[in-house]
Structure formats: structure tokens, C-alpha cells
Amino acid sequence: MTSPEQHRGPRPSRVEVTGTGTASASPDVVRVALGIRCDSEGVAAALTAAAATVRKVSAAARAHGLADRDIASTSASVQPRWNNDGSAVAGYTAYHQLTLLVRSLPALNDLVDAVADAAGNHLVIDGITLDLADRAPLATQAREAAFENARAKATQYAALAGGRLGRVLALVEGDGEGFSPMPAAMDSRVMMKASGGGLPVEAGEHSVGASVRVAWELVSDQPAE
Question: Which CATH number is 11-26+135-189+203-220 given?
């Protein structure tokens, strides 16, 4: 009695390699995390001051071209402030964080100036992140580059073995051992202007990486003995 494996015949010769690829593009959006910090003697007064400042900042952002969808509150809190020796509450601090999505890098400097004017000394800049509005095209390019890299290596190995590539037998994203896509890397610098105020940005590039493991049938060009 024959087994299913015998019915299928011998396993074809194969060449199996891992290919890697990257794709890069300049960031096209900036995410600005702003904090509004207001101190007062009471909780209600601190919250009221923070809310008023947030409204001013949001209005300034809209006046500089940001749409409603590009202005988002991400956190809000109120905490007691203690005196120097920590023995009594000296007042309260309300903190509200906003994230602004700036879709034009040249507009960033004027926007930050306007927001700073609106918030005054209540403004805290928690961070600025350069990003891509849509990473999908870059990821597609990285996967294509990874596959071409794998095919080039497999073609060389097949030729060294005296054969050529046949059909694809298997394809797995990553190296088959828990590979995860390369995180986006930011090559950019954020710096204050020498004259003070504003945050001009050198955009640099974002890179996305991919890896794929591919097995091809190894077809021999030598006549069978």
C-alpha cells in the first residue's frame, strides 16, 4: 500500500532565500503635541483658564489653515500643587494636551508662532513628529524591492548549481522566524531659530523596510542520466 507522499512523488529540488528591501520618502505631515498648563488656587478656576486657552489655541490653528479633523484633544488632567515642604496644597494645575496635524511643512513655523501668541506662557511643546500621511505606497515599494532582492539571489544560486528558477513553491513575509516589518525611521532635526520663536524643521526621510522568504523550484538544465 502506498502513502499519499508516494502518490505525490518526490519533493522537487528547490532554492530558498530571504530578500530584504527598503523604500524612502520625505515626510509630508508634522504632528505637534501641545500642552496647555494653567495654575490657579482652585480646581474650577484652573479648569476654566485651561479651557479658555485651549479655545484660543484651536482658533489660532484654524486661522492658519488647520481643519477640525486636524485638531484633537489627547489628554486632560488636574492635579494639586504642593508647597515647598510638601505639607499643604498650594493650588491646582490643569493640563490639556492637543495634537495638531500640520499637512504643510512650510506652514509649521507660522503656526507655532500663532499658537504661542494665543497661549502665552501657558504653552508647553511636548513634541514634534514628522510623519507620512499615507505609509501604504511606501510599504508596497519596500515589499516589491524585497521580492526582487530575493529573486536576484535565488537566480544566482540556481545558476551556480547548474540550473534555473522554476515556479514559486512558497512565499512567507519575513524570514519565517518571527520577523516583524522594520519600523519607520526618522532622519530629521528640529531646531529653534537663532532669533527665537518658531520651529523650522529639516524633514529628512522616512524609511520603511520589508523582508520576504521565497522558495523556487530548482530546474536543472542538465539531461537526466
Answer: 3.30.110.170
